[in-house]
Each structure stands twice: as structure tokens, then as C-alpha cells.
Amino acid sequence: GGYGVPVLIDPTIILTGQQSANPFLGISRVVTITTNQWKGVSSQGVTWSWDSETDEVSDDSPTLAQPSVPVHSARGFIPYSIELEQDYPEFANEMAGLLSEGYAELTAAAFATGSGVGQPTGIFTALDANTNVEVVVTTDGEFGKADISKVWSALPDRAKPNATWLMSEDAKEHVRTFDNDEYSGRTVTLTEAQFRIRERDVVASGYAPEFTATTGAANILAVGDFRKYLIAQRAGMRIELVPHIFGANGRPTGQRGWFAWARVGADSIDDSAFRLLQNQ
């Protein structure tokens, strides 16, 4: 209350509680759809056979499945007085920026650990529900070079060329303490030092599970081909002006509002392209 009215101050709002990066848009498959869910077709492939001359060939028809990713509604609303709008320079632009940052924050959290109920399914949530892609550490409450090797070896060969590591910043810092060999190190580019594991990019998310070095079931990191994690956008984020807000008696309050909305969904469409390192 009150802080928004400027008295010869810089009107730029400085965010202090958000601004988490959303790395998923850069590594995942992002599609725009015109329905309420994305539907695809998947298959384990066709298995060939070696046949002798004149032998009848086997039926190698593939089994087809249809993965789907529903979209969910995300909303934001900022009411404001007509006086504030008149007195605050660049008010509309600042509010649009805040709404955009809030949406990025919301989706960054959902793409990591979203429940899938009324919101996107996070990659850690999806993989944690599939025991076939889980890899446990050697020693409960710890993870070291041997566990990096263990989870990498468990990843299918087809997923390795385009693999990316995803973990929290504290897990990433823990990996930095390992010896600077094939398990951990920096690849220096012309412009910056880039941290990589097994010559694959490492992405840190503020919403990935924290590594606390305590015992008990917990997710640590994920590695895989994130083209198999699909983000479906029904439409991009939109911001609309509500010209008048009415009170309980149906009369104007002298307020307007910025109403922002978006519809987006996400889920793994091929769990086998990932591996999830976990505490025991």
C-alpha cells in the first residue's frame, strides 16, 4: 500500500522475491496447440530379425501408443486505482513486466516439480512415478563420482548425444567438489567458463530438489534428452485491461485491473529417455 505513488523517484520496480530462471524453455520441446491437450504417437520401434533364404519373415509391426499432455489455466490479476494510473509514470509497462515475471516463476516451479493435478507435471514428478528410470546412490545420504557414473551408465545410448543434466544449485556446487576429471569439470569457451559433466550441459533450477546430505528417500538430479519433456502452450500469456471494478453493491470503486492468463501443460512423453538419481 502507498509505496507505488512516486515522489520524484525512479518508478522502475525492483523484484526482490522472484526472478528465478526458467531453463526448461531452452532445453525442452515446446509446441503451440489449438486444443485443450497435445496428443502424439509413440512406439518402441520395429524389431528386425535375421532370416534364412525362403524363410517366412516375422511380423514386426510396431506397437503404437498415444501420449497426451493436457493444458492448465494460470492467472494473475493486479487491481489499481485510477489515481495511481495517472500519477505513476510507465505504470502499465511496469505491471506487464511484473505479470510476465510472475508467470515465468510459476511455470519454472511447475516444470520442475508440478503435481500434474490442475497444473503441469514436473519432470521430477514424472520420473519419480516410474521405478524403471530411478537410480539410487551407493551410500544413502551421499552422492559422489561413482553415482554420477552410475546414473550416466544407466541412461540409454540413444539419449546420451542430446542429454542435459538438471539439478539444484547446491547439488551443482557439490559436484564441483569432485576431482576435475571426466565426472566434473569446466569446458572453457571463448566467452565464458561453462560447467559440464561428461561433456553435457548442466542446467541449474531454483526449483529442483535441494541436496541436503541427509538420509531417506529424495530426488537429487535428472539427466536425459529433454526433447522428450514436452511443454504444450495453448496460447502465450495474454494481458487484458478490466476498465472498471465494481463493489459489492454493483457500483464502480474507481479501480481498474490488469488480468493476465495463460494455458500451458507439460509432461514427460518418454520416461525411458531419462534417468533420475535418488537417495535410497
Task: Summarize the structure in words.
The chain is an alpha+beta fold. The protein has one domain (24-39, 67-278). Helix content is 20%, strand content 31%. It contains 6 helices and 15 strands. The chain has helices at 24-27, 82-87, 91-113, 123-128, 145-154, 169-176; strands spanning 29-32, 37-39, 42-43, 64-65, 68-70, 72-81, 134-136, 163-167, 185-188, 193-197, 200-204, 219-225, 229-242, 255-268, 274-278. The strands form 4 sheets. The chain has a 7-stranded mixed beta sheet. Strands 1-13-14-6 form a 4-stranded mixed beta sheet. The longest helix is centred in the middle third of the chain and has 23 residues, at 91-113. It is globular and about 85 Å long. Residues 4-19 have low confidence and may be disordered.
Write the layout of secondary structure elements.
Elements: H1 24-27, E1 29-32, E2 37-39, E3 42-43, E4 64-65, E5 68-70, E6 72-81, H2 82-87, H3 91-113, H4 123-128, E7 134-136, H5 145-154, E8 163-167, H6 169-176, E9 185-188, E10 193-197, E11 200-204, E12 219-225, E13 229-242, E14 255-268, E15 274-278
- The strand order across the widest sheet is 7-15-12-8-11-10-9
Number of strands: 15
State the secondary-structure class.
Answer: alpha+beta
Number of separate domains: 1
What is the element string, with H for helices and E for strands? HEEEEEEHHHEHEHEEEEEEE
Percent in helix: 10-25%
What is the CA-based Rg, rounded?
A: 24 Å
Number of helices: 6
